[in-house]
# Entry
Amino acid sequence: MKIHKLIEGSEHAWYVLARDPDRTESVIDTNEYLILGKDEAILCDPGGTEIFPQVVSAVASVTSLDKIKHFLSSHQDPDIFSSLPLWMGLCPQATIHLPWVWKTFVAHYGHEYVNRFHCLPDEGERLMLGNRELQFVPAHYLHASGNFHLHDPGLKVYFSGDVGAALLPEGEQSLFVENFDAHIQYMDGFHRRWMPSERARDAWLARVRKLDIDFFCPQHGSIFRGPDVKRFLDWFASLPLGSAIL
Amino acid sequence: MVSFDMASSASMRDNSQILAMRRTTALYRACMSLASEGSLLALENEGMKRLGLNAQVMAVHTGTRGGSLEVLVAEISRLSTSIREILGQLAGSASILNEKSVRILHMSHLNASYGAGWETGIMSINQELYLRAYSSNRERLGTSLSELEEQLRLATRHLDDLTRIAQQIPPISSLIRIVVAEIRMKTDELLGTVADLTNFHQLLEVKIERMREVRGQALARIDEMREQHQ
# Structure
């Protein structure tokens, strides 16, 4: 697993863990994001049990693990946080922020930690990381019926969960989208199939277009930078969704 | 941009970890199997109750000649009740065995993941915290193994009780034959009872043997797992 420092501010930095070269082929490749403040950190979508050893090793290489005070489980899928009991064994005092609709589902990964769950209301919430404000942004039905992204207005980074995800072929290891048009082929099918609601997409777009974003960071595939962020939003805006509605 | 390349843990899941997972799965299966054999016996014991009723009906039909049949009814009924009670206790143990073995399976997976994480590499600043979580999980695993072992020993006592009761079945079969000779009447039903009882006795012995075997396998897996985790 490789860990890269994405951007650093005066009080905190974003790291991305991505492109595990030794990942078992049957397991989808995921990106994990660590936001590291002076005294505390939040790990976004820490990943499944299968990749825990690589993720914990990489995270431990840049921070003290007891600094992790927050986890975001953007939704309930196993690649998001089936490693929950392992992380909570290491960071028992951490808070797990998750959509309220998934509380009893995520509890299947480790019911003994349910008292550490913080259920996010549908409209989202603020989270203070030290002095920096982060925002849990609603992205319901994109794809899960309860779904949150995380925006950092200070460093202009937006963790977008499965929105912007791409299923990259073997050998395509680029951390950032380098050629937007060429990248479309890797995300087109995913978004048509996984994203069920154009109405939900439009509501989300209206919200996100107002945000200042330099890095648009999906949970799978490459990160969008600069002008590619708007290119992605425009492309997504015109995409027909729900391809399996027969 | 700072970049660290960490080794994969996939190759770190060495043979000993795979072996550990196999042992845990074998332990889980053994516990499930013990529970399942007990449930099957409970169903067969329902047949014993029917035999008791059958003998009761015969006693009513034979009137005064049926005095010894009443003794028989009482014996079959006593036997059936005892078996039911022990199977109930065994089912209670089996239910706890299921729960504990699932928990152990879960904790063994966690243990393997912590082990793989350690082998992948944990920077020194985090080693103490990491080892604390790893050890804590291992301790919980050890406690669960001890609790499972205790339940298996309890199940052993139930199996011993069941064996003692099974030994009482052949004398009852003999008693039925004596009664049949004594009342000198149409005795197809009772002779059928003898055949049923004989079959049930055989089944009981096979199941008890099977449950002892499975229990032995489970205890052996516990010993191996303890050795592995030391």
